[in-house]
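Internal ticket - ligand job 351, NAP:
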Amino acid sequence: MSEKIAVGVLGATGTVGQQFVTQLQGHPWFDLAWLGASARSAGKRYADAAHWNQDGSAPASVADMTVQEAKPAAGAPRLMFSAMDASAAGAIEQAFARAGHFVVSNARNHRMLPDVPLLVPEINADHLGILAAQRKNRGRPGAIVTNPNCSTIALALGLAPLKRFGIEKVMVTTMQAISGAGYPGLPAMDIVANAIPYIGGEEEKIEAETQKILGDFVDGEIRPLPAVVSAHCNRVQTIDGHLESVSVALAQKPGVDALIRAFQDFRGIPQEKNLPTAPARPVHWLPELDRPQPRRDAMSENGMAASVGRVRECPVLDYKFVVLAHNTIRGAAGAAVLNAELLHAEGLLTP
Ligand SMILES: NC(=O)c1ccc[n+]([C@@H]2O[C@H](COP(=O)([O-])OP(=O)(O)OC[C@H]3O[C@@H](n4cnc5c(N)ncnc54)[C@H](OP(=O)(O)O)[C@@H]3O)[C@@H](O)[C@H]2O)c1
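stdout (structure tokens):
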């Protein structure tokens, strides 16, 4: 590729925004050229506006960049990643799309709209077919593509290899890391030496998003997977990586060994096309009885691979297993970068 594509990040100062900054360092296709955030940060040096909460300091290539107001304006790149708080993302992402930008978003606001793809490239790359309808319905040159909630994507990657066996019912209990709540997130007095059995709106998101992601694109529309999903969501005091215990009822009963093979063999379009940040294997099956674990496994394949373990029979539904994915990489910034890579590889970023 000769010239890199300029990209911007909306919400660049937050937890996921910083992960975008990190993921885009040295990217072979994309050049991080623009940073946007709220009026509180606009006009400041990035290093002063962002309370850097990743290892080390803000990269030198962005530290002195001036944070812009999150408004479509001259100089803003066509391709925009969004890591804005949901209270702001709805209107601002629409404004960018109306102005002709391609918004690849992490925020929840547009995920469930019928004409917006909720993309996991290994699972539902064909859902991009809905973009034609989005542009036509809304009469605008720009577009919005979303990635799932951070806990949903772990579940979806754990379930996708089993789709061929006919998923009928799913029960999931999450143990979600502190970084999932953004910065500053939860008060230390609430979370240290504790677990909190409630994350507002999370259970509903997992239940609905999973059906959409695993649905089929038929006759120009996304038809949700007709499986019931029930979620219990808990915040625990790990830093990164959402761990989830899953039970599943399947139409076929292929046996534990067939499930393990399905996890091991699972690949998708990003692997076929060798996209720059695609993991070689999107799902890693771990045979050890006490894995996956957030501290040991969340960074599998640079945080882009989900890990599955403890596959066994379930006396209530048919089978059960544990799945883990890094919430700010595979569950947010890394997911969006992979989405943009697929869009580019498919020629969809060109106006
Ligand atoms: N954390 C995760 O694991 C995770 C995973 C998947 C998806 N998400 C989603 O990603 C988004 C960001 O989450 P986060 O955890 O990074 O949150 P965060 O740390 O609270 O960061 C929020 C970002 O939004 C910006 N923002 C707030 N109000 C704004 C406004 N009116 N206009 C423009 N920008 C505004 C903030 O800018 P200032 O610094 O200027 O206030 C900041 O950059 C949310 O929609 C969240 O639901 C998060």
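Auto-summary: The chain has two domains: 5-149+333-345, 150-327. The CA atoms of residues 280 and 332 lie 19 Å apart.
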